[in-house]
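Entry for the shared binder. Reason: the reviewer on the internal report wants the predicted structure included alongside the sequence.
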Amino acid sequence: MPMIADFADRPLSGSRRRLLVLLVAVVTALAGSLIVQQQPAQAAWNLVWWDEFNGSGAPDSANWNYNVGNGLNPGLNTFDGWGNGEWEWYRPENCTQSGGNLVLRANWNTTPLVVNGRNFYQTSCRITTDTKRSFQYGRIEARMALPTATGSWPAFWMLGDACDETSTGAYNPAQTYYDRLPTNWASCGEVDIMEHANANATVTNNIFWDLRTGVFPWTAGQNANYVANPGVSNVAAFHVYAIEWTAAQIRWYVDGVQTHVIDTTPGTLEEFRKPFHLIFNLALGGSYPGQNPVQSQFPLTALVDYVRYYQDGPSTPGGSATQINGPGGTCVDVAGDDTGGNLAAVQLWTCQGSAVSKDQQWAWNGQTLRTLGRCLDVDGAGTADGTKVQLYDCNGTGAQNWVQEGNRLRNPNSNKCLDSPQGSTANGTRLQIWVCNGSAAQSFVKAA
């Protein structure tokens, strides 16, 4: 999420950071060290923190603070739209839990909010884990549905904990309360997991850093970024946006498909070997969408079904083949006695051991589970409850991505869990996906 923190004794240009400080020549010179080949996803992740937003009203105060206002630039002592010319005034009350989602709501009010002599007609929300939750390395993902209105700018992103912006835990602060921009961007680091503008059929994956080593006040000409703009079909529908982050690189994903990657081992990218905090916001107008909001399209909402943070699991890509233990002491099995052809049914069966049944031995390879040279696959990449699972040629699609979360196996593409219909434990029970519900019917754990 752009934030031009210009603290010189001159007004801001209003340009988006990526236009102002791309430093194309420098980034091009570094490109050989920044660009790396697509990597396989981590085989298994341990879910260590999450917010499913299943409550009502205010979000969980144990997890969330708020950035309020229009982004005071302390160097100029003026509001500058968070450095990007944005229109909105952020208020915590514009973030609520409803219907199993975090709802970020943008309103166009007939009576303005007046602060420091400025009229603000548009309100929205920016919610952050700043000072509440920090993250360093692992997988961070959120399932989101986005607005497509003119001038809309939803984002899911992170700032380094070294960034010195302010935030508040108050859900209903005084109408005149506001927070300020960080003075030390971009040397504190920024990772944009997902940004979207207008009705675009693309999203933005981006990263910002300072070309020096260390934390400094914002300095013109010292900042760089590295960006990709992958296509996404129908952003108004739910999609899973994620990064996988190690000490050596950051990889971006949409619905389990890698869309961007950067090597963070160069010395001047040390920002990304430190803790970060999360931010969701719904901005309005400004330099990134490049279009003004339209009153008749309000109110706008961005929905967050969940946000989850995983750390490295016990398995590694290409790990040993073992059984997947299912309900009632059964095992995940492939119909056909070790023949394993395309479209072979995946079912429950009495556990028989590796010496007897090869098709009960599954190995992680990236986020895929493989046996007999093929992958555990959701039929037709379906997302509906009751869609069957099968064995199929490994093809890199989201239909074949799985994550172990405690005692369940979840398919991020559908956000559904591997499931035995009605909790059956009978031999030959055909497995399916179903909304994750924590029942015994969804107890599937790959043995170490």
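Summary line for the report: The radius of gyration is 23 Å.
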